[in-house]
């Protein structure tokens, strides 16, 4: 363990729209925040191509470029953006001790958690190779690019049903690939997709390979009961088998729901630990959009600023 110990008023764990927005607000408030980017600087948007639904970009913008803009804006006001992974936290007493890369310790008066969430994937080579080239884990984000086209979606829960219904509104046909003989979605959501003439549910069906070189042009699936294979001609392939919040290092100290999302007091970003705030997809399992993440990042910085003022640390 390094003997070097640094102190800061605001430590932000994780980048992405939530973390960078929190940094912008905290820096403009004169709090000199320190932000550690985590293992994926910029978050999920760095593996997204065109972003067309974020206000202020009338012609759209590439996800990585957008996150670079966020970072530059945070740094412009004095945020120290650092590359590194927070590996341990001690929230047992204030000020809090956070360990970066298992060696550097930082003492923080407040901590903003913006570690985000990661989409669960099928784990096949073609899925990774064509990610952002027709393969997506967010129908609301990317469905627009496939309007009037045929697409496929994998999943059997409420989110998969919601996204299939969303896609059916803008696409000509939606193949819904369900690997069992039944769904785990609620009955009302099941009825919604089953009664939609543009959605075709393929039961006991799994993905063998996503077809295409530079973009998706089909998917080969197989029936896990009969072994029969078939190819579907689609230009978009959506994975809706869930997300996993990147919150494992906090599980011993912060209240979470059964899926690992951090619980916050309604109407705020406050956690059960005084002076620790959570924003973005680490605590939002409903909306999961860049603009809502940025909004909660703003809230977290304001909550932290008010907290510091209340304890007379500013």
The Rg value, from CA coordinates, equals 21 Å
The class by helix and strand makeup works out as: alpha/beta
Whole-number count of domains: 2
Spans of at least 5 consecutive residues whose pLDDT stays below 50 are none
Oligomer: single chain
CATH class of the largest domain: Alpha Beta
| Order of helical and strand elements | EHEEEHEEEEEHEHEHEHEEEEEEEH
* β-strand number: 19
Q: Helical proportion?
A: 10-25%
Globally, the shape reads: elongated
Core attributes:
single chain; 314 residues; alpha/beta; FAD/NAD(P)-binding domain; 2 domains; seven-stranded mixed beta sheet; five-stranded parallel beta sheet; 19 strands
Overview of this protein structure:
The two termini are 30 Å apart. By secondary structure, the protein is of the alpha/beta class. Helix content is 25%, strand content 27%. The strands form five sheets. Strands 1, 2, 5, 6, 7, 8 and 19 form a seven-stranded mixed beta sheet that branches. Strands 10-17-11-12-13 form a five-stranded parallel beta sheet, covered by helices on one side. It folds into two domains: 5-118 and 243-310, FAD/NAD(P)-binding domain; 121-239, 3-Layer(bba) Sandwich (FAD/NAD(P)-binding domain), CATH 3.50.50.60. α1 (16-28) runs parallel beside α2 (63-76), α1 (16-28) packs parallel to α7 (290-310) and α5 (158-170) runs parallel beside α6.
């Amino acid at each position: 363990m390094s003997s070097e110990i640094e102190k800061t008023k605001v430590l932000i764990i994780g980048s992405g729209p939530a973390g960078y927005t929190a940094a912008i607000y905290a820096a403009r408030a004169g709090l000199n925040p320190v932000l550690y980017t985590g293992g994926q600087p910029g978050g999920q948007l760095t593996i997204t191509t065109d972003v067309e639904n974020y206000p202020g970009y009338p012609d759209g913008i590439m996800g990585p470029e957008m996150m670079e803009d966020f970072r530059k804006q945070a740094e412009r006001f004095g945020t120290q953006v650092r590359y590194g992974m927070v590996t341990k936290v001690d929230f047992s007493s204030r000020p809090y001790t956070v360990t970066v890369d298992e060696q550097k310790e930082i003492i923080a008066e407040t901590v903003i958690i913006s570690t985000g969430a990661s989409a669960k994937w099928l784990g096949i080579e073609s899925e990774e190779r064509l990610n952002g080239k027709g393969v997506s884990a967010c129908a609301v984000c990317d469905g627009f690019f496939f309007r009037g086209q045929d697409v496929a979606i994998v999943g059997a829960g409420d989110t998969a049903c919601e996204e299939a219904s969303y896609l059916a509104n803008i696409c000509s046909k939606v193949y819904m690939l369900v690997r069992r003989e039944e769904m785990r979605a609620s009955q009302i959501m099941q009825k919604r997709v089953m009664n939609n003439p543009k959605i075709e549910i393929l039961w006991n069906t799994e993905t063998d390979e996503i077809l295409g070189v530079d973009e998706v042009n089909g998917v080969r699936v197989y029936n896990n009961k009969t072994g029969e294979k078939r190819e579907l001609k689609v230009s978009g392939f959506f994975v809706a088998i869930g997300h996993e919040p990147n919150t494992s290092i906090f599980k011993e100290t912060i209240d979470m729901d059964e899926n690992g999302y951090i619980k916050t007091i309604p109407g705020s970003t406050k956690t059960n630990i005084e002076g620790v705030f959570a924003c973005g997809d680490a605590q939002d399992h409903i909306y999961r959009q860049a603009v809502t993440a940025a909004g909660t990042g703003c809230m977290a910085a304001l909550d932290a600023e008010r907290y510091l003022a209340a304890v007379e640390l500013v």
